[in-house]
Design a protein that fits this description.
12 strands; 3 domains; Rossmann fold; alpha/beta; 6-stranded mixed β-sheet; 412 residues
Length: 412
């Protein structure tokens, strides 16, 4: 049976989802889905994905990632995700976004706060907010509407901070021995997240040797000129709707999947889900990758993750490192500035990566298990408080305070 008709409830557990709303607009033929996974810590937060391949199953899994992402970041949000099934370049995107907003309006913004995701932009958020009739309906809006657009690179900035810190911590713990100045980085996906991750890592002095998008892979073992590539793409954008790497001049190009075969110390998936799978993972092992930093949401299948771990590859999980976007969204939500957003992203990502990696090294557990455990404890306490189990929640808070104190003592 097609995953389009997947029974989302077969994945239901103690955490959620609380609501799964599938909508259809006969006039535009818009098909959409909203999954509100868990709202114990606050309204469900998550972007709207606008892609031809959107399915309820995918949106549920992304909503669950948001539950853990908001919890590990310590934000007053739960987890949710929206999805519109269609190609935004081939339909009347304004009409489709309006139709989706109108269909889910009863849940916004008290139970769901939207944002941009693959296929949606700050202009879509402007349309969404106006249709709902409330600027609190979404984040990632244009600055003219009080927004902090994701086009500023908040997610990529967080990924770059996490990459830099993870490498330095693992070096200090004698788990890795890679000179940051010599580290080779490959970035799969060169959209908003991948391009800004490359930009910020380049500014930190890292060598990005390979990038790709849907059209091509570009590789230089001595390091790519990221500022030049981004500037050329920016210029091309004034001439065409959506320039891609294949449109660049004077740059040798290869098929896009060659990215998995390029020798690199750090591999950063920043595209769609499950690109690191049982087929591609063996190329990463052969390419001598030592660390995978998940800029994309759920980019690695469970089977591929096991293979990476068995080969000593450290995987820094998505909801830990790519939280820059939702942290920036929170600053927008409370009326903060762009500068405050970047400052809070650096503080929270640094604090959380340090905690998770030190605990992972000390406990011999993978970073994902450690990070999920922290997130689950926080969500569970919020659920207990919502249910009125004050005594149980208070005891849990006391335990968490002790663990937090011990971590700070051990880690500093």
């Amino acid at each position: 049976m097609s995953s389009q008709y997947f029974d989302v409830w077969s994945l239901a557990d103690e955490w959620g989802p609380e609501k799964v709303i599938q909508v259809y607009d006969p006039h535009t033929k818009m098909r959409g889905v909203l999954v509100i996974d868990n709202t114990a810590m606050g309204p469900g937060k998550g972007g709207i994905r606008f892609q031809p391949t959107v399915t309820p199953q995918e949106i549920f899994q992304l909503a669950r990632v948001m539950t853990w992402k908001c919890a590990i970041a310590g934000l007053p949000f739960g987890g949710a995700k929206g999805g519109i099934r269609g190609n935004p370049l081939e339909v009347d995107r304004v009409a489709w976004v309006r139709a989706f907003a109108k269909a889910i309006k009863p849940y916004v913004p008290l139970q769901y706060v939207a944002a941009t995701d693959m296929g949606t932009t700050e202009m879509d958020m402007a349309v969404f907010a106006h249709e709902i009739g409330d600027m609190k309906a979404c984040t990632g809006k244009p600055t003219e509407l009080g927004g902090i657009p994701h086009e500023l690179g908040t997610t990529g900035y967080g990924v770059a901070i996490a990459t830099d810190l993870s490498l330095k911590i693992l070096n200090k713990l004698n788990i890795l021995n890679i000179d940051p100045k010599e580290a080779r980085i490959a970035i799969q996906g060169f959209g908003n997240v991948g391009s800004f991750t490359a930009k910020f890592l380049d500014e930190m002095g890292y060598k990005v040797v390979a990038i790709n998008d849907a059209s091509a892979c570009i590789y230089d073992p001595n390091g790519l000129d990221i500022p030049k590539i981004m500037e050329e793409l920016k210029l091309l954008r004034t001439k065409m709707k959506a320039p891609v790497l294949n449109d660049l001049n004077d740059v040798p190009k290869e098929p896009r999947d060659k990215i998995f075969e390029k020798e690199a110390d750090i591999f950063i998936p920043a595209a769609t889900s499950y690109t690191i799978n049982e087929q591609t993972v063996h190329h990463l092992i052969s390419s001598k990758v030592k660390m995978v930093v998940e800029a994309a949401n759920i980019p690695t299948t469970k089977g591929a993750e096991r293979i990476l771990q068995q080969n000593g590859v450290w995987i820094i999980p998505d909801f830990l490192v790519n939280a820059g976007g939702v942290i920036g969204s929170y600053v927008e939500y409370i009326g903060g500035t762009e500068m405050q957003a970047f400052e809070l992203i650096k503080y929270k990502i640094t604090t959380n990566v340090k905690r998770v990696l030190i605990e992972a090294a000390n406990s011999n557990n993978p970073p994902r298990i450690v990070a999920e455990d922290v997130a689950k404890r926080r969500v569970k306490k919020a659920m207990l408080l919502r249910e009125g189990a004050i005594d149980v929640a208070t005891e849990a808070y006391a335990r968490e305070d002790l663990e937090e104190y011990m971590w700070r003592v051990d880690g500093l």
